[in-house]
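Before relying on records like the one below, remember that each one covers exactly one chain. Contacts with other chains, cofactors or solvent are not represented anywhere in the record.
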Amino acid sequence: MRILYIDTSSSYLYSAIVEDDKLVASVSEEYGQSLSEIALPKIVEMFDKNNLSPESVDKIIVVNGPGSFTGIRIGITIAKVYAWAKKLPITTITSLEAMAVSSKERKTHVPMLNARRGYVYAAIYDENNNVIRKPEHVKWEVLKEDLDKISDYEIISNDEFDWEVEENSYIPDFVAIVTKFKDKEDMNPHAVNPDYLKLTEAEEKL
């Protein structure tokens, strides 16, 4: 089975094509504000450089949050249109799941993103990636209280925080991610939507 993975939930484009648990092609680049313009062309380029046809994909896995509101919408839109046009099965995972699964450490995984104003997007998984604390938008002090009860854990993040925190960088393991979630239940493309874990600023003002 050939699977396309797409994650635009941050300033990075993380995308890969994995076939039968082997990496065929990938792109991991930071594009910042240019991500909205360059994500689709870079994915197309990934196909072209490896002489792959869009018709050869059997399934799409897309990250639907949390992270950058704009970034999440970019990946979701690309994945939904692709899946609908080619009549492909599609499923979603969270950015926090992808971060945890990519870790090589045999300890409790704590993927974490800066949500600003003292809040983080975070989750806690055991060393086998079973959920201890599900993904949520939570105040850092509240999360830290739970972490203080865990003897051996790692925080996984590429973000900077306003407080001192020791973290391991997130480097996606595309094969591990796709292998973990390739059999996750498929969705109707029209039912695939962002999961921000919190209201947008505009929604909060309303």
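The domain at 97-168 is CATH 3.30.420.200 (Nucleotidyltransferase; domain 5).
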